[in-house]
Amino acid sequence: MADTSVRPWTRPHDWAEVVLGLVALLSPLWMDTTDGAMWTMIILGALVTLDGLASLAMPGMVYGEMVQIVMGVLMFISPWVIGYTEMNGIAWTSWIVGALIVIAGGAALPIAQEAHRSGMAGQH
């Protein structure tokens, strides 16, 4: 696993983050939303996708996984904060995708830390 963790474009956790970000980004296309819900999903989905791609390209970027966890929490709480809990489809998408992003980011964090340590060891 340590060998895979330092190679770009190979970590399944980061691929999961990219896919989850795309699901959030595109979900307003097939679900009823309000303007607030739509823009929340588009913006957070795009940020999650971009951060996942950055983590794939740079496996030792530990802060990228921490950013994913924060964005997952923001996506999870957004139905209450933005006020779209009554819209079952988009609200459940926020809750499920947000929770899965937190799980994927949390699972990828120790792997990114190991990649960071391995990558930095050869640079000193």
Automatic annotation (TrEMBL):
Protein name as annotated: SPW repeat-containing protein
UniProt keywords, alphabetically: Membrane, Transmembrane, Transmembrane helix
Domain of life: Bacteria
Organism per entry: Herbihabitans rhizosphaerae
Listed transmembrane segments: 37-54, 66-84, 90-112
Domain SPW repeat-containing integral membrane positions: 13-105
InterPro entries linked to this entry: SPW
Coiled coil, from the record: none
